[in-house]
Design goal:
Layout (H helix, E strand, L loop, with lengths): L5 H4 L13 H10 L5 E4 L5 E5 L1 H9 L12 H12 L3 H4 L6 E3 L4 H8 L6 E5 L5 E6 H4 L7 H12 L10 E5 L2 E10 H12 L6 E10 L1 H5 L2
Parallel strand pairs: 3-4, 7-8
Antiparallel strand pairs: 1-2, 4-5, 6-7
Helix pairs in contact: 3-4
């Protein structure tokens, strides 16, 4: 997915807050827009933090920060108690805001989102201004790419005339790819499968390629 950028699948219409946005308004924005990420931006439009239902839930979890602190709570509990007592975005937001460039590859963003504690990223332009958000749900949109677009990408990556002497037959149906034809050596057939799996929108690949020579068995690979 190295040729697909974050801008391709990000959500560009984003509700935002500013540091002095009141707590109740934060709740209202999340519910009214049916979202679970609210970037907090400065006067220039750059993200300085984020508010999610996780931060807002601290007020219920710790009763507004009035509960006696536990003896062995650690840093996480201290942060949650501070958030529980907060009445503005500045007091409850998590910092720094997790960001990704709009022209970053989707593969890099997926690695960032694979962290179990990180479900969203703020997308910024070259000047650091907020231009969108990216969630795991947004990334899943790649699986809705049309078969024709997937086929075009596969042709470009697998049948480049400059390096391909044995064209590969490509069929795409509902994101499922079938590769047919005969290549010179077995290692090239397996390489073709790996390349195809990295094309955005591909669900699985059926490798039906044949080969003239089994270089993997001969070399012990």
């Amino acid at each position: 997915m190295n040729h697909v950028t974050v801008a391709t699948v990000m959500t560009s219409r984003v509700a935002t807050a500013v540091p002095d946005t009141p707590y109740r308004e934060l709740v209202g924005l999340l519910l009214a827009h049916d979202i679970d990420l609210l970037p907090v931006i400065d006067v220039m439009g750059r993200p300085v933090g984020v508010v999610t239902d996780h931060e807002l839930f601290a007020k219920l979890e710790h009763h507004g920060g009035t509960d006696p602190p536990p003896l062995f709570g650690g840093r996480r509990v201290r942060v949650r108690r501070t958030q529980a007592a907060g009445v503005t975005a500045a007091a409850v937001m998590s910092t720094p805001a997790p960001t990704v460039s709009h022209d970053a590859t989707l593969g890099g963003a997926i690695r960032a989102l694979s962290d179990s504690d990180r479900r969203h990223l703020c997308v910024v332009d070259d000047s650091g201004y907020l231009v969108g958000t990216l969630s795991r749900r947004d990334v899943l949109r790649v699986f809705l790419r049309s078969d024709a677009v997937i086929h075009h990408d596969l042709e470009h990556r697998l049948n480049d005339p400059a390096r391909c002497h044995h064209p590969i037959g490509i069929d795409v149906t509902d994101g499922v790819v079938a590769l047919t034809g005969t290549l010179a050596v077995r290692s090239l057939t397996e390489q073709a499968t790996r390349i195809a799996h990295r094309v955005a929108g591909v669900i699985t690949v059926h490798n039906e390629l044949d080969y003239d020579y089994d270089d993997l068995t001969t070399t012990g690979l």
